[in-house]
Amino acid sequence: MRETRVVPAYNSQCAICRLKELRLLDAAHILSDVLEAGEPTIQNGLSLCAIHHRAFDQNLIGVSPDYIVHVSRRLLEDEDGPMLDLLKGFHERSLSVPSRSADRPDRERLDIRFASFLQLAV
Ligand SMILES: [Zn+2]
């Protein structure tokens, strides 16, 4: 993944929480490199902060093809202080996507990824 292109496409912000600290931002893959559809393009990436990147990779947070953030039941039902409350607060909120439509996340890839979130999320 050419991280240098993904994060700026999102105005250098986390697509979920809008955090703007570059040192905490990653280019996350929607579909992993090992899969055929996991090509290193901007449309296969999301600019995410470290905590949202990890949560996305671990299926604790999913993004549906209509660009809505979904928090796993496991996190929603847990109660463990202010950071968790913050994570839960993004449930069913809209993803912030790039202003250039060509840079927005690919809905087909999100659909595939979201299906595994629904299957794997606990
Ligand atoms: Zn974030």
| Chain-averaged pLDDT | 91
For the biggest sheet, the summary is: 2 strands, antiparallel
Oligomer state equals single chain
Shape: globular
Radius of gyration: 13 Å
Which strands sit side by side, in order, in the main sheet? 1-2
Q: Which spans have pLDDT < 50 for at least 5 consecutive residues?
A: none
Give me the strand/helix succession: HEEHEEHHH
Helix content: 25-40%
The number of distinct helices, counting runs of at least 4 residues, comes to 5
Domains (count): 1
Say how many strands there are: 4
> What ions, cofactors and ligands are bound?
zinc ion
The N- and C-terminal alpha carbons lie at a distance of 28 Å
- Structural class of the helices, strands and pairings? alpha+beta
Q: How much strand content do the residues show? A: 5-15%
Question: Secondary-structure blueprint of this entry?
Answer:
Blueprint: H1 3-9, E1 25-29, E2 45-49, H2 50-57, E3 61-63, E4 69-71, H3 73-77, H4 82-88, H5 107-120
Antiparallel strand pairs: 1-2, 3-4
The structure holds zinc ion.
